[in-house]
Amino acid sequence: MGSLQGKVAVITGGASGIGRATAVRFAQEGADVVLGDLADGTETVRLVEKLERRAVFVRTDTTSEADCDALVAAAVAEFGRVDVGVASAGIATAAGMSNVEARAAGGDATHVVNIDTDAFRKVLDVNVLGVMMTDRALARQMLAQGDGGAIINIASSAAKIPLAGASPYCVSKAGVWMLTKVMALELATTGIRVNAVGPGYTATPMIGGIEDNAAAYGAAMSITPMNRLGTPEEQAAACLFLATDESSFMTGQMLHPAGGQFTG
Ligand SMILES: NC(=O)c1ccc[n+]([C@@H]2O[C@H](COP(=O)([O-])OP(=O)(O)OC[C@H]3O[C@@H](n4cnc5c(N)ncnc54)[C@H](O)[C@@H]3O)[C@@H](O)[C@H]2O)c1
């Protein structure tokens, strides 16, 4: 028996990176999964089905309230309930460039004094409002079920580490971290636990190609004592812990698989 045998998990950002690895890990532990993403989730569905679990992909823009509600409704329609939710959908910058690349490019084009308002707003829209609307839809369903649940928000070590040139991202992830704590308080007596994972630099498309960019990789490793990137699977393992009863007395916490970033 896997530790999520018979459970149903909804995962945003499930088409790629940490969301995909989490879907696969949860399926290995016996869960069926519902994947919401702007991008095509077919490959994740295939990987889950290879493990003989069921997976449904729902094209979802998490900045749309209707889409977030429809994603949870699809899980209920397909599997009858939702036990676990992982909000992994996120962006680094409005332009798609990673923060490390932006910082390593030097100059102050991405500093607050120069940043474009819409670029800032876009990151908050996806990373904060998108997570709030995902969490709200999940929590409403879990409250209706009446037997608890686990919500896991993918924040970032950048929720606590200020990075020059990455103000929208840092602010958004600090927002996710605070949202996690407030929701945990509000739901503490319901059996619904709300926690966060705050990854350090992790090898996913979000920071794609970083190893080929000496300046960007050097900047990332200068604040990563283990001197390597994390893997999506290492983030998925933290999500698994927070999804199961192994963490039954934990709510409002953030785990940092981050290569030692918080040793200082
Ligand atoms: N990779 C890292 O180094 C790192 C570090 C810290 C935190 N994170 C966080 O981890 C989470 C997952 O990122 P990842 O590294 O797997 O990157 P990724 O780019 O591989 O995956 C992000 C996914 O989110 C989806 N997405 C983006 N905007 C969306 C929207 N509006 N609606 C629905 N889906 C949307 C993308 O299509 C993509 O599939 C993000 O929240 C990211 O900020 C990543």
UniProtKB/TrEMBL annotation:
GO terms for molecular function: oxidoreductase activity. Gene3D superfamilies: NAD(P)-binding Rossmann-like Domain. It holds the Pfam family adh_short_C2. Keywords: Oxidoreductase. InterPro entries: NAD(P)-bd_dom_sf, Sc_DH/Rdtase_CS, SDR_fam. It comes from the Bacteria. PROSITE patterns: ADH_SHORT. SUPFAM superfamilies: NAD(P)-binding Rossmann-fold domains (SSF51735). Belongs to the short-chain dehydrogenases/reductases (SDR) family. This is NAD(P)-dependent dehydrogenase (Short-subunit alcohol dehydrogenase family). It comes from Pseudonocardia kunmingensis. The lineage of its organism: Bacteria, Bacillati, Actinomycetota, Actinomycetes, Pseudonocardiales.
